[in-house]
């Protein structure tokens, strides 16, 4: 069961809190929203080229940009800065411990644009990496689905199936084999890119696993920190179904099946349940097989090549 796609909102104040930024101007405008998950360093814009200026992005001013502005005459600086602030970006963030920003502060005060500064000098490129990673996660569209998510051999696996099919019990077995729980019952999926889905919990169920006849377990308290992982990138979507006699067959076709979440295709397989079947072992096998496919190896393709070789001889 999927919920509707939830589009997140991020404010300038959220950035101030997360990165302990100093507010130099625009304190009353910190509730301005940020809609773009990537920041921008104005370079061409300072010399008058605005054809592709991403006005909705957070603008970063590092040593390179501030040094350039310091070297301009007062009149030239007024033109260059004025041309940018009139587009009203969400905010400006100055990095690398720059000084002499009085003129920039004045422009931001007049236009009502937050001007922020990192509390400690740091490389602009490093700050941008941290900032962009944070904004991508916070602004990622997300949905909540009913299921279980576990991390197996470093990859995220979704376990889905009807209520009572045994998803949580299987997750508990996987934890006993050294794998990690990410979410039980409600799995939150975030779309980080056209090819990447990140899975996490909804906060309320963090570290909890519900087992029928046993009750609610805190896996960290029971099995230690290694039993839980806060988030993981999804690699496989596994649907658990009831055993259907005479319906199983070896998958020798080359075409993979997929499930789509927010238009991102995730490889999909079905595992039928039957008493005595080592489902945890099958999940581990599926995970290892997926890893081999990423390295370019397919057991089915090799088998077909052997058959063709035998027939040709």
Inertia-based shape: elongated
Mean pLDDT over the residues: 89
How much strand content do the residues show? 25-35%
Query: Strand arrangement, largest sheet?
Result: 7-8-13-10-9
Rg, Cα atoms, Å: 26 Å
Strand count, sense and barrel status of the largest sheet are:
5 strands, mixed, barrel
Structural classification: alpha/beta
Spans of at least 5 consecutive residues with low confidence: none
Number of strands: 15
User: Count of helices?
Assistant: 9
Gap from first CA to last CA = 52 Å
The SSE order reads EHEEEHHEHEHEEHEEEEHEEEHH
Helix content: 25-40%
Provide a descriptive summary of the structure in words.
The two termini are 52 Å apart. The chain has helices at 12-19, 63-71, 74-85, 102-111, 124-139, 167-176, 219-223, 279-294, 299-312; strands at 10-11, 22-25, 33-34, 59-61, 92-94, 115-117, 142-152, 155-160, 180-193, 196-200, 208-211, 215-218, 231-242, 257-261, 264-273. Helix content is 32%, strand content 28%.
How do the strands and helices of this protein lay out in sequence?
Elements lengths: L9 E2 H8 L2 E4 L7 E2 L24 E3 L1 H9 L2 H12 L6 E3 L7 H10 L3 E3 L6 H16 L2 E11 L2 E6 L6 H10 L3 E14 L2 E5 L7 E4 L3 E4 H5 L7 E12 L14 E5 L2 E10 L5 H16 L4 H14 L1
Parallel strand pairs: 4-5, 5-6, 8-13, 13-15
Antiparallel strand pairs: 1-3, 2-6, 7-8, 7-9, 9-10, 10-13, 11-12, 14-15
């Amino acid at each position: 069961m999927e919920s509707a796609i939830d589009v997140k909102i991020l404010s300038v104040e959220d950035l101030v809190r997360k990165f302990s930024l100093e507010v130099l101007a625009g304190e009353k405008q910190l509730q301005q929203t940020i809609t773009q998950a990537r920041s921008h360093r104005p370079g061409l814009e300072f010399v008058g080229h605005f054809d592709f200026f991403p006005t909705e992005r957070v603008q970063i001013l590092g040593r390179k940009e501030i040094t350039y502005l310091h070297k301009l005459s007062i009149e030239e600086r007024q033109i260059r800065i004025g041309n940018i602030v009139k587009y009203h970006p969400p905010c400006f963030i100055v990095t690398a411990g720059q000084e002499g920003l009085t003129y920039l502060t004045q422009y931001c005060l007049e236009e009502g644009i937050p001007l922020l500064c990192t509390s400690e000098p740091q490389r602009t490129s490093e700050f941008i990496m941290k900032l962009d990673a944070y904004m991508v996660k916070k602004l990622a569209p997300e949905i909540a689905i009913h299921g279980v998510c576990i991390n197996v051999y470093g990859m995220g696996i979704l376990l889905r199936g009807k209520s009572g099919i045994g998803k949580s019990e299987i997750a508990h077995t996987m934890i006993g084999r050294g794998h990690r729980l990410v979410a039980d019952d409600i799995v939150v999926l975030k779309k980080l890119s056209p090819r990447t889905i990140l899975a996490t919990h909804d906060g309320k169920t963090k570290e909890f696993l519900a087992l029928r006849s046993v009750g609610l377990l805190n896996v960290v308290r029971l099995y230690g920190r290694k039993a839980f992982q806060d988030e993981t990138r999804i690699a496989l979507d596994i649907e658990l179904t009831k055993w259907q006699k005479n319906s199983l067959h070896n998958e020798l076709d080359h075409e993979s099946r997929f499930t789509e979440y927010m238009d991102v295709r995730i490889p999909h397989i079905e595992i039928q349940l039957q008493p005595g079947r080592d489902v945890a072992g099958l999940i581990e096998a599926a995970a290892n097989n997926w890893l081999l496919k990423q390295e370019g190896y397919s057991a089915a393709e090799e088998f077909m090549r052997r058959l063709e070789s035998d027939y040709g001889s």
